[in-house]
Write a structure and sequence with these properties.
444 residues; alpha/beta; Aspartate Aminotransferase, domain 1; Aspartate Aminotransferase, domain 2; 4-stranded mixed β-sheet; 16% strand; globular; Omega amino acid--pyruvate aminotransferase; aminotransferase; EC 2.6.1.18
């Protein structure tokens, strides 16, 4: 791309767009613009190729501009651009729901469609509250999240979430919410490979919350099987099984937020498969369409669904939904995405690459300022020592330099998070970590 073409690709006025989760002033002084993407690479306005080490925002699991998905979207827009989801339907919504339900172990066999992970979380929380009331447990109104959890940015999600900066600016949020502690234990588990050995007992923190509030007041517990946006916190061995036991014992619903771990990220279709733990609901988004069209979904058990299927047949059973629930174009994109995953074996490909990826991530242990490394499947995190008095600056500086050197990484605090498209090759893994090593050794 010529200099003239590159400048033309950048709008003259950057002010009107208030960018999300972005240092707006810094960006607008030196904008970083993507103008195209294909497979494992973005193309910048200057014509440079950038290797995608983050699958966009944890979402482009099948890579970019995949032909089957592109064609499905183009065809669907021309055929049926929109159909209302209230009291009406279209065939692809039911086809997609059936295919998704078939991917999960029984009895997780019903799907409620949303448009994002944030909407999926708020939907699951509302279903949990309504379900407890429907079974005569109307006193169960309390929701339990976890410190350092990320569950989107709706008021429900930030209420049960536990990332301080996502909470502190927005008032009291939902009432009746409590949190158990996170599982990060760098003293015992630093540089763990895969699931840490220590920390299953952290699940017993739920016992203290139950004793404080009484189980008859608690509707649901929500956790990410692998906490992603807070910096990739891998659950200790046995932790999730213990949470399941406690929730079952006390009549509490367990919700897995699989917006990140769903659709092959850790080497199985879902984290419930990997950890052999069955929650009562699963929230998803991102990889359901490989990021092509906004979409999310909540999976729930047959028991939960059928509890609502009472009363007169002409009455609405659940007073909840979205204008764009099961949008036809999103459904077409999702179906083509599932086809792509199946044809290329992508839902389990992370398992094939896991050991190679693990070795590559941990090869950076000797780099300056690295204080911990974590990994599972095709997720990795490199935690850096903070600059005294300037938290987040070291990792953000690495992010900027990595972009200049042709790799896209993500930072949260002073943690570098990596989650490439599932189509990444071993040679591209070598390139990603070779360039990241140079960034860590020479530029921060």
């Amino acid at each position: 791309m010529s200099d003239k073409a590159a400048s033309a690709a950048i709008p003259n006025n950057l002010e009107a767009f208030w960018m999300p989760f972005t240092s707006n002033r810094q960006f607008k002084k030196a904008p970083r613009m993507f103008v195209a993407a294909k497979d494992m690479h973005y193309t910048t306005a200057e014509g440079n190729k950038v290797l995608d080490g983050t699958a966009g925002l944890w979402c482009c699991n099948a890579g970019h501009s995949r032909p089957r998905i592109v064609e499905a979207v183009q065809k669907q827009i021309a055929e049926l651009d929109y159909a209302p989801a209230f009291q009406m339907g279209h065939p692809k919504a039911f086809e997609l729901a059936a295919r998704l339900a078939a991917m999960l172990p029984s009895p997780m066999d019903h799907v409620f469609f949303t448009n994002s992970g944030s909407e999926s979380v708020d939907t699951a929380l509302k279903i949990a509250l309504a379900y407890q009331r429907a079974i005569g447990q109307g006193t169960r109104t309390r929701l339990i999240g976890r410190e350092r959890g990320y569950h989107g940015v709706g008021f429900g999600g930030i209420s049960v979430g536990g990332i301080v900066n996502n909470r502190k600016h927005f008032g009291t949020m939902l009432t009746g919410v409590d949190h158990i502690r996170h599982t990060h234990d760098p003293v015992r588990n630093a540089f763990s490979r895969g699931e840490p050995e220590h920390g299953a007992e952290f699940a017993d923190d739920l016992i203290k919350v139950i004793q404080l509030h009484d189980p008859s007041t608690i509707a649901a517990v929500i956790v990410e099987p692998v906490a992603g946006s807070t910096g990739v916190l891998i659950p200790p061995k046995g932790y999730l099984k213990r949470l399941r036991e406690l929730c079952t014992q006390h009549g509490i619903l367990l919700i897995f937020d699989e917006v990140i771990t769903g659709f092959g990220r850790i080497g199985t279709p879902f984290a419930t498969d990997y950890f052999d733990v069955m929650p009562d609901m699963i929230t998803t988004a991102k990889g359901i369409t490989s990021g092509v069209i906004p979409m999310g979904a909540v999976f729930c058990t047959k028991q939960i669904y059928e509890t609502f299927m009472t009363g007169p047949e002409h009455m609405i059973e659940l007073f909840h939904g979205y204008t764009y629930s099961a949008h036809p174009v999103a459904c077409a994109a999702a179906l083509a995405t599932l086809d792509t995953y199946e044809e290329e074996g992508l839902l389990t490909r992370a398992a094939d690459l896991a050991s190679y990826w693990e070795a590559a991530v941990h090869s950076l242990k000797d780099c300056p300022h690295v204080i911990d490394i974590r990994n599972l499947g095709l997720i990795g995190a490199i935690e850096l020592e903070s600059i005294p008095g300037e938290p987040t600056k070291r990792a953000f500086s690495a992010f900027l330099k990595a972009y200049e050197d042709g790799i896209l990484i993500r930072t949260t605090g002073d943690i570098i998070a990596l989650s490439p498209p599932l189509i990444i090759s071993k040679e591209q893994i070598d390139e990603l970590f070779g360039k990241l090593r140079k960034v860590l050794e020479n530029n921060i």
